[in-house]
Amino acid sequence: VRAETAGPSRRCRITTDVSVACYLFMDQPVPPRMPELSKVALRRFINGQKHRFTPEELLAASAGPIARLEAYPEFQSARTVLLYHSLPDEVDTHALLTRWQGRKRLLLPVVDGGDLRLVEYTGPARLAAGVFGIAEPQGPTFTDYASVDVAVVPGLAFDSQGRRLGRGRGY
User: Fold this and answer.
1) In terms of CB atoms within 10 Å, which end of the chain has fewer, N or C?
2) Considering only 49-53, 79-83, 109-113, which range has the smallest mean pLDDT?
């Protein structure tokens, strides 16, 4: 999936189709169009493609997207940023969290039953494994949603309209 800035607002625009989203982390060449797949089949296909990479390759592939995120003026000027604590097969956010802790208010999602709530990230010592094995911050629920300047959301794929294909849990 390739991200580009679009127009004077410099908002992120996704330029490839969901069916080619297996070309990970924004730096891979886009292949010829693939046939339409169901969400389940597409998730299975993308996960299979991700398993072709070593953990070291996936970590190295995260550098470009993270650098581009940090270069966006919206990120640079943001005071409050909603992120995610990455799983091994996602764009790695661990160094990003460390780098910006104390310089921005960083929020991470916490699974609470069938819902997500936001909690401020205050460092790795305050993380605990959540329901799906994802490291989640401990603390009070953050509810000042209007103050979130930038939200960074993981996904298996995004289509040309920016719609997200997640892992299938409905979050």
Assistant:
1) C
2) 49-53
Tokens for 20, please give them: 């080619």
Tell the burial category of 89 from Cβ atoms under 10 Å away from its Cβ (0-12, 13-18, 19+). Answer: middle
Residues 6+ apart with CB under 8 A from 78: 104, 149, 150
Look-up of token digits 């949603």: 145
Q: For 130-143, how does the pLDDT look when each residue is reduced to its tens digit (9 = 90+)?
A: 987 889 999 999 99
Neighbours of 81 (CB within 10 A): 21
**Per the structure block, which two tokens stand in for 120?**
């401020």
pTM above 0.90, yes or no: no
> Residue 150 in contact with residue 83, Cβ under 8 Å?
no
Bridge-based pairing of strands 135-137 and 127-129 is antiparallel
